[in-house]
Amino acid sequence: MVVEIYGARFVNKGAEMMLYSIVNKIKEKYPEAKIVLSCSSKAEFDLLTQKGFYKRITYRKHLFDFGDLGRLIPKKNREKNNIILENEIDVFFDASGFAYGDQWTYRMANYTANKFKKYKKNGTKLIVMPQAFGPFNKKNNNYYTRQFLNLADFVFIRDKKSFEYVQKLNLNHNDIKLMPDFTMLLAYQKESKYNSLKDYVFIVPNKKIISTSRLNNIEELYIEMLKNMILKLELLGVSAAFLIHEGIGDYHIAEMINNKLPKKIEIVWEKDIYKLKGIIHGAKALIGSRFHSLVSSLSQSVPSIAIGWSHKYQMLFEDFNTEDNIIKIDEEKQVYLDKIDNFFREEKMKNEIENLRKNSLVQKNKIDDLWDIVFEKVLN
């Protein structure tokens, strides 16, 4: 079996978690499966080779897709370098996370629609993995998203609000189901060098809070909020550290906040997704703005507070019956500090952990159902 995964890469840790969640499940079911990622540069080619992936050679510039460039390479060289052609793909997973809706350019949906058309002609099974969608008030976003979702063999949607948005597209099939984020089943790995961080509260910043907000003073608001929360935790006698779940942009935010603190706190930047999840597993709590850091914490029964920038945070916390633990970026200082104070009361923490244990089991059972559908209904 030849399986291509689209939309999940390595720089974004959430995307990498999605990538390996699919890889691990496919390999568990089909040990000999060839896992393919597209690449358009020598650097990408070398990285994918190093990580053991097969490659599909392509190049894309804006709306223009140069197509399957691997066909220009002799078969002997393709086989030697583990290069796969489009017409050799048996299954295609779209794991974009959140790429289709009015917050994004319609070109993303247009590109996916064109890809789905070609793959459908080849007989490739097309599966859209759980992700956030919408809204679709812009004509082109509506048109192209509807187009590729209609071509899919099965569509999984990550939250109720996204499901409502997709229902309004009036798809011509019913192979669509609400399912939670599938990275919850990804295993964690403990690393002894992080033992000293057990029972810390981790602060996970997100540069997108600043870049996507319409508030004029968003950078000041966000940095002041996290600074004030850290100072509050210190007053409560709780140890805190920054945990970088993304890249250099998030690291710079942590540095900016540290420069405003009377005493800097540690910045932890672990690149391995399994060890990153292991750090979260040992946390006392997590205060985060990165979606998949919150998926990792909630699904491991770690009490969590979200500072979110889209509906996906609200929907995630509703799945775990803990939506009261979302803080809006423009909340008054005393309001969010009172929430922090209440959140870390002993009885509240015990109740949170018990609630998360119960709801985590429910969500993980749903993900098992998702893979049953993939293997028994779509790929059987």
Provide structural commentary:
The structure is a single chain. With 380 residues, this protein is an alpha/beta fold. Helix 6 links the parallel strand 8 (154-157) and strand 9. The chain is globular and about 65 Å long. The chain starts with a strand and ends with a helix. It has two domains: 2-185 and 364-378, Glycogen Phosphorylase B (Rossmann fold, 3-Layer(aba) Sandwich); 192-361, Glycogen Phosphorylase B (Rossmann fold, 3-Layer(aba) Sandwich). The strands form three sheets. A seven-stranded parallel sheet has the order 3-2-1-6-7-8-9, with helices on both faces. The chain has a five-stranded parallel sheet with strand order 12-11-10-13-14, with helices on both faces. It is built from 14 helices and 14 strands.
